[in-house]
Amino acid sequence: MLLAPLFLDLDDLTQRDREAEFAKIRSRRVARDHMRSTYRKRRAIAVAVLAVPIAAFVFAGRFPSDSKKPTAPKPAATTAAAAPATTVDQGPQRFPAPSEVRAAHFSMYLANDQKAVQKYIDAYDPDKGLNAVELDIKNENGDIGFTEDMPSLALKSGSAHDFYEPRVAVDQFHQAGFYVIGRIVSFEDDHVASYAPKRAIRRRDGTLWKNHIGLGWMNPYDKANWKYLVSIAKAAGKVGFDEIQFDYVRFPTDGDLTDVKLDRSSPKMEATIAGFLKYAVGELHPLKLRVSADLFGLAATRDLGIGQNPRKLRDIVDVMSPMIYPQGYGSGEYGIDCPVCNPHDTIEATMADWKKAAVNGTAELRPWIQAYPWLEHPYGADQVQAQVAGVRDFTNRGFLLWNPKASYDAGMLQYPAVAAQ
User: Fold this and answer.
1) 3-state DSSP call for residue 170?
2) Burial tier of 9 (Cβ tally within 10 Å: 0-12, 13-18, 19+)
3) Cβ pair 59, 180 in contact under 8 A
4) Alpha helices (runs of H) in 285-407, residue ranges in sequence order
5) By the 8 A CB rule, do 363 and 319 touch?
6) What is the number of other CB atoms lying within 10 angstroms of the CB of residue 49?
7) Is 10 helix (H, G, I), strand (E, B) or coil?
């Protein structure tokens, strides 16, 4: 039985379809306003409750991995002459990461669609089903899903939209028991590249460089871009996300790279990507936000010339998420004639290299796996389960499902239980 699609990928739509979809999104704003009102009422109640001393809070966060429950802070000593106590906003409590994270991608475009949200929530199972969600904050187009607390550049460049009410969306997933991962597509960003070309990758003649589908990129060497991305992450932290996942955290791979006005030497690119993630972790860890990075599946096997070296990242980020989709491997890779035909063997071979690359590091491995068909190769429950088995041969810290159409059938979303670590 196929579950109805959870979201649409607007990258696959025509401009007319995109406009129609945005019209639907705008029509949902009435529902969003109602949810916002509901959220504010909940927040007012929560603030009143938190004013009363409590021994512990069921959703108290741990970071980066701590099985101990935090105790309530002791009140500061006061005197008769002391000023009245004031409430200090310490930010939202973080949901602890499950021992094994089992998540799937969810788009910003339908995060205000209550039917789509409910279908995802219905797939929750703490033992054998989904227990986490990856919700887009910033996607491949450069679109940002909400405007609250976003940096001015996000607003001026036309990047930030009110596609969803973030506090409501995160609260809904938390109430249902989900750990919430926020995905930020990093350096591919046509909005900022077009608005501020001095911060973008440019051609040798100084004009704006674009990739094969016409999208501009922010220059990874420009530390103003680092600050911008981290500012977006901080805004997400304020509304309750538990983890920030940086995707496209690399140099471009497609388009006319010979016309790029950049130093593309591997040592400098690798140092730049590692430097950005180290900066991000330094800014986000104090906010109790975990940090993960999406990396190419073959980055642990050989230098891909994009700045991703897991051996330099394994002690920086909390989680490395290699994208190990079998369709991405050519014939003969790892000695497998048809990798997409053999998902289990392909995953095992890839994970063996990743296990070696991560050894002695502090980062967990939590790969992305393929949950979408490719050409004449259907990818249903059997292929997903084969990949999950291959992942679990090397780690039981979890996996994420990627399907741009979100046609997940029931078998894709139920897995044999694993023993807790």
Assistant:
1) helix
2) middle
3) no
4) 310-313, 343-358, 381-392
5) yes
6) 10
7) helix
Question: By the 8 A CB rule, do 209 and 261 touch?
Answer: yes
Establish whether the linkage from the previous residue to 64 is cis, with ω within 30° of 0.
yes
Q: Are 341 and 377 in contact (CB under 8 A)?
A: yes
User: Distance (Å, rounded) from C-alpha 9 to C-alpha 82?
Assistant: 56
pLDDT computed for residue 419 by the predictor: 62
Q: Mark the ranges of the chain whose per-residue pLDDT is less than 50.
A: 1-32, 34-36, 38-88, 421
Rounded (10°) angle between helices 223-238 and 266-284: 30
d(CA 147, CA 226): 19
Spatial distance between the Cα atoms of 124 and 132, rounded to a whole number of angstroms:
8
Q: Encoding tokens for residue 50? A: 């938190």
How far is Cα 102 from Cα 104, in angstroms, rounded to an integer? 7
- The string of pLDDT tens digits covering residues 42-90 is 444 443 433 333 333 333 333 333 333 333 333 333 333 334 444 435 5
Q: What is the pLDDT of residue 16?
A: 44
CB 393 within 8 A of CB 351: yes
Tell me the Ramachandran region of residue 142: left when phi exceeds 0, alpha when psi lies from -120 to 50, beta otherwise. Answer: left
Q: Which residue has the tokens 């990507």?
A: 273
Tokens matching residue 186: 């990093």
Paired with 294 in beta bridges are: 321
Find residue 323's DSSP bridge partners.
296, 368
Q: Among 107, 102, 97, 170, which Cα is nearest to 130's?
A: 102
